[in-house]
Write a structure and sequence with these properties.
The protein is of the alpha/beta class. The protein is 46% helix and 19% strand. It contains eleven helices and ten strands. Helix 3 crosses helix 4 (66-76).
């Protein structure tokens, strides 16, 4: 009688797929598209925390313990952020990008989309810079800033706009004094800044714009250190999607760790060395 050899790696891969399919079914988030090594590293932390020996056991555990699903999604999503992260990028935004956009599109609504906004620090950093710029102008253009993420808890925190001290370490003292209220070791953003930004759930892998934004095109899209977590094929699809949503002479800003896309050479020009800020031709 011929025996059939079962490859342990194949079984693990199948069990992992079943687990990720369950998450997709429950929360409409497709982690199958993320880089496998990233997913496995973060999953291993939850297996250790729940003392589950393998993916199959953990899959059963998560179905019996709904709270663990939230803990897993929290572990799989990336929320490393703080105000004015990578100061060189924000210097370019303040000195070049935002003044140009505010002048070029002064007769309409300046539309900014921060994809993968985590707890809102990036979107609010943009809002602070815009407030600084328009405060010196006679006519204040209309501004719409939307921050999106797949982490609903992070979005709720963004709406509250209350931050720990380590989130504001890169904030200039003048900005801190003007736009934040310090209380009990926390920093609360003032309404003149929070009123400029809105936040909504959105998955960039859907290759759509957020429906809460109403608009289908933007003057500035920031997607920093998000594409690095997807496989190359999906990263390129997402990039192409963003490119289609950016108006001519609009800007796309990627993270420093993002792989250089060939399409950028053809359709965009880099405006500053040391950054990945691109103007659409």
């Amino acid at each position: 009688m011929k025996t059939v050899s079962i490859n342990k790696g194949d079984v693990m891969a199948e069990n992992l797929k079943d687990l990720l399919d369950y998450i997709k079914d429950q929360r409409a988030i497709d982690f199958n598209a993320y880089r496998p090594n990233t997913i496995r590293r973060r999953l291993d932390l939850r297996l250790s925390a729940t003392r589950m020996p393998d993916y199959a056991s953990y899959n059963k555990y998560i179905r019996e313990n709904p709270d663990e699903l939230e803990a897993l999604i929290d572990a799989l999503t990336i929320k490393v952020s703080y105000f004015f992260r990578n100061p060189l990028v924000f210097e370019a935004l303040q000195d070049i990008v935002l003044p140009e956009l505010l002048d070029t599109f002064k007769d309409g609504i300046l539309r900014v989309w921060c994809a993968g906004c985590a707890r809102g620090e990036e979107a609010y950093s943009i809002a602070i810079l815009i407030r600084e710029i328009v405060s010196k102008q006679v006519l204040c253009p209309k501004v719409f800033i939307i921050g999106t993420d797949i982490d609903r808890e992070a979005l709720e925190n963004a709406k509250k706009a209350v931050y720990k001290a380590d989130s504001v370490l890169e904030v200039k003292k003048g900005y801190l004094d003007r736009y934040f209220d310090a209380k009990d070791g926390f920093y609360l953003l003032k309404e003149e800044i929070t009123s400029l930004a809105t936040f909504a759930y959105h998955d960039v892998t859907t290759l759509t714009t957020p429906k809460e934004g109403i608009f289908s095109d933007y003057h500035l899209i920031l997607c920093r250190n998000v594409l690095i977590y997807f496989n190359r094929e999906l990263s390129e699809k997402i990039f192409n999607g963003f490119s289609g949503f950016i108006l001519r002479n609009g800007y796309l800003i990627l993270g420093e760790a993002e792989t250089f896309m060939p399409q950028l050479t053809k359709d965009y020009e880099r405006i500053m060395r040391g950054t990945k800020i691109f103007r659409k031709k």
